[in-house]
Amino acid sequence: MRKLPLENIRVLDFTLALAGPLVSLWLASLGAEVYKVESRTRLDVSRRMRVDASGNMIPTGDPRFGFYEQPNHSKRSITVDLTVPEGAAAVRDLVKVCDVVVESFAPGVMDRLGVGYKDMRRLRPDIVYFSLSGFGQTGPYSSYRAFGHIASSFGGVDNLTGRATGRPASVGSTLDGVCSISGVLSTMMALWHRFETGQGQHVDLAMSEVQMCMIPEAMMDYLMNGRVRHRDGNHDDVFAPYGTYRCAGQDAWIAIGVTSDEEWRGLCRALGRSELADDPRYADGAARWKHRAELDGLIEQWTRTRKSWDLFHALQKAGVPAGPATTTVDLTNDPQVKARGMLTTIHTKRGEPIVVQRLPARFDGEYLDTPEPAPLFGEHNAYAFHEILGLPLERVHAMETGHVLW
Amino acid sequence: MASVLEKISVIEICHGIPGSFASKLLGDFGASVIKVEPPLLGDSVRRMGPFLHDLPGPDRSGLFLYLNTNKRGITLNVNTPTGAEVLRRLVKRADVFIESTRPGTLEPLGLGYDALHALNPGLVMVSLTPFGQTGPYRDYKLCDIAAYNVGGLSMVMPNPEGPDHAPLKAGGRLANMLAGVNAANFAMAELLTRRTTGEGAHIDLAEFEAAIENMSRFLTQYSIDDEIPTWPREAFFAAGEAEPCKDGYAFLFFAPEHLFSRMARLIGKEEWARDPDYVVQATRRAHWDEIEAVIQVWTKNKTKYEAMHAAQAAGVPCAAVNTIAEIVGNPHVQARGIFRETDHPVAGPLRYPTGPFKMPATPYSLRRPAPTLGQHNDEVMCGELGYPRTELVKLRQAGII
């Protein structure tokens, strides 16, 4: 078994919903022991559960529990009501034997609950404390409420998304992932620093700021030239032809981008129009840019009667960068996905087979992680508080019935 | 204050965005990065705009300047035996090597993982390619929009135009950037493992798989319930849209029921806040046109920032849909110190975004701007590898540097 980078690292995970849990998911996949802190008083919406009058967890009937199972696989679950003093105290006891805290509450919430960075550092001086928020831990807007759409709006991506003549289209949770993986990088770097020096720190990730780092073309055009870029659908600011073209059938599309004269000649061959390669209207990148609207029409005339997957292979054979707009059905059955083996089937704790994706890189030919099913609600209360912290089992049960581990 | 990766050295020999972004992230947090470019023309990104004052030049590409902060630069034609030997000597003493050549091209040059690992068993080598080192698509090519689509991202982004229109890609080149962050992550992961094992690894990262990772929860859900494979395209969530203000747009978000009620009160519709037909998302959709019309009455007589502050004061998540100018001029962004200026020998003083996160003990540092082409040939090849100056002359005349 390949050694994992975060074996012997214990994480206390206060994140809920999507962006935060994707951070702790990576940490779990890299070998860390991740304790997801849940509570009946603050359910993770992705569990698709609600609490009845007796405190039982009942499914809401929303069948989309895959949105819980995937971001939270390989984690453990403890239930703690942080709003009661004994709950916060229990978590503070646990942090003494933890290396990392990850949280995604609005700035200030963790402090008010008594489990903020200062509280945790007092008990574990070298704690790596990672906070994910919309606007950051400091600054005039730090208390502003944020979700994915708020970050992508404020961060500049939404204004660059959508057609030139239309409204901005929000990328929303599509880009939660780029914020999450940035958070993983910062957490690993903070752990590296702690291994080197013994020093922890409070890492502050603002989702809107991650977005600002991901759009350098527009950023630098303004910073260098004072120019405010506008959205332009699926077009590129450098290359033409470039876009997403309709294919035969229902809601089928292929994305094509020509980034060199050689690729243009390849596209002409694939189109069966080799004579276009010598046509001065399209012979070089500048000419193609000038006539891009014409080229889009020409290309779509060709694609609209053909299947997107046939076009994909034909274009690739001709050396043209292209990709069909894939659906979940396509990807689940895709030959490359199957050959690589990134997707794997595991069984949830309730015995249902589900497909999950392993971390997307092979190390010496193998994907790193071996996914385990997502935990049942509060499944590891006894493990965390009795086995690790040494509280007697009766005490743990009393804390559960007493609505502390709740 | 410390530089977190100050003990780490990186060699990066990539065209385009993903590999350059990966080594930039490591360099921005302290690693010593050497970027290796082909002689004369350099990285293809040098020829991509935006250009400073719209005057093209190899050191005037804003994209290149941003993606290559904190790196030294050398030129090298690794397709020559001498060039390959120089690269081997550099990689032998490095911790991380990032490359994105077509699978199979490095081995004949003596630059494949096996050869490099023999020279440097602790080497962390990241090969970042469109579809990975193996599989039926391994020789296929991608550009950002193709990666975004084949990786499943375009079909999971709700499109306000509906499924009769082409799926939209996110603004910018997000698939490329995603691949870059992933590459930095995996290099970092192996550096951590190497602390205990002493061994490196060959990391095979596909831009295709990095994109899929961003939407794989939909694959998980599809494996449970194949009734709804493409629901994001057809679904409509009645959770918020960019709404027109006096000076652009503001986005109000209210998917959860309690937020909808708050928003309803904000726009003067107390009765909707108490009506389950409006509050519950499943039934709210049928009322969307009516709801949006009233929201727009509220937003249209305000600037985007008036809307943002008023909504936030009422506990409703709301943001101005910012242009870049608005971001740079924003008081919160300024208080956060997102932009940092440095001088460049050709482009002059310019501001760059810092980030993408704040680490107070080991902050982002802007130690040097992007290199000019071959700027550090002397410093690296003579000063560090020990080649005499006369050798540089020969190498230049032979087209090797």
Could you outline the blueprint of secondary structure elements for this entry?
The complex is a heterodimer of chains A (406) and B (401).
Chain A: E1 10-13, H1 19-29, E2 33-38, E3 49-51, E4 57-59, H2 66-69, E5 76-79, H3 85-95, E6 100-103, H4 109-112, H5 117-123, E7 128-133, H6 148-154, H7 176-197, E8 201-206, H8 207-212, H9 216-225, E9 242-246, E10 253-257, H10 261-271, H11 285-290, H12 292-303, H13 308-317, E11 322-324, H14 328-332, H15 335-340, E12 343-347, E13 353-357, E14 361-363, E15 366-367, H16 381-388, H17 393-401
Parallel strand pairs in A: 1-2, 1-6, 2-5, 6-7, 7-8
Antiparallel strand pairs in A: 3-4, 9-10, 10-11, 12-13, 14-15
Chain B: E1 9-13, H1 17-28, E2 32-37, H2 62-67, E3 71-75, H3 81-92, E4 96-99, H4 113-119, E5 124-129, H5 144-150, H6 174-197, E6 201-206, H7 207-213, H8 216-224, H9 231-234, E7 242-245, E8 248-252, H10 257-266, H11 270-273, H12 276-279, H13 281-284, H14 288-300, H15 304-313, E9 318-320, H16 324-329, H17 331-336, E10 339-342, E11 350-353, H18 377-384, H19 389-397
Parallel strand pairs in B: 1-2, 1-4, 2-3, 4-5, 5-6
Antiparallel strand pairs in B: 7-8, 8-9, 10-11
- Major β-sheet strand ordering of chain A: 5-2-1-6-7-8
Q: What is the terminal separation of chain A in angstroms?
A: 37 Å
Query: What count of structural domains of chain B?
Result: 2
How much helical structure, as a percent, in the residues of chain B?
A: 40-55%
Strand content of chain B: 5-15%
Biggest interface between chains? A-B, 155 and 148 residues
Number of domains of chain A: 2
In this structure, how is the largest beta sheet of chain B organized? 6 strands, parallel
- Can you name the CATH architecture of the largest domain in chain B? 3-Layer(aba) Sandwich
What characteristic shape of chain A results from the CA principal axes?
Answer: elongated
